[in-house]
Design brief:
Strand content: 25-35%
Order of helices and strands: EEEHHEEEEHEEHE
Radius of gyration: 18 Å
Largest sheet: 7 strands, antiparallel
Distance between the termini: 10 Å
Number of helices: 4
Structural class: alpha+beta
Shape: globular
Low-confidence stretches: 63-67, 123-129
Mean pLDDT: 82
Amino acid sequence: MATTSSLKAKKVKATLKFETDILFDRFSGDINRASEIEDKLYLDDKNRVIFPKDNIKSFLCYGGGRGDLAVKILATENWKVLADLVAGQVHVMSVSPFMRNGDPVVFEGFDKNGVYMHTCKAGGGNARDGGKKIPPTMLNRPALHSNEEDGYVELNIKLLIMESEKVKEEYIRFLFERGGWAIGLGSFRTEYGKFSVKEWDVV
C-alpha cells in the first residue's frame, strides 16, 4: 500500500443493504420556492435514483448540529476530534445508483419501480410557520421501498481511507455497521434509511 508520512492508503469496496424504506428530502437550492415532490429525489442524468457522495461523508462526520454523529456512538468525550479526523482521512470515491436485484432503480413516476410518495405526520401548523397549514410539498416525501416483499435495495460505495494511529479501516467499518442502525441515511432516519453492511472488501 502507498504511504504518505505516517498515513497508509487503503481502498474499500462496500455494499450497503437497506433494511427499511428510504425517504428523500433533497433541497432545491431556493429557500423561497416550495419543491415539487419529485424534486426531492436525487437523480442522475439517466433518471436513476442515487445518493450523493457528500451525504455519505456527512453520515460519517457531521449530523447537522444535532449531535447524531456516527462517531458519537462510541460514547466518548473526544467524538468531535474523531469526527474531524474522519473528515480529513476518508474520501468517498464513488457511489452507485440504488440497485435492486442487480439493476439500478429508475424513476419513472410514483408507484413504479418501488418509488412512492410518503406523507409525513404533522398537525395543522406550528410556531415555526406561524400556525399556517403546512403545504403538501412540505409534508410529502419521495420514498423507496426496501423490504423482503418488494426486494431490498443496495448501494455500492468505494472509499479511500488514509489510515493513521487513530483512524483505521476497521474503525470506519465499525462506524458504518453501527451507524447504519443508529443513524441511517436519508430523511426521517429514526424510522427510515437503516442499513447493514452486506460486503466490505479491502482492494
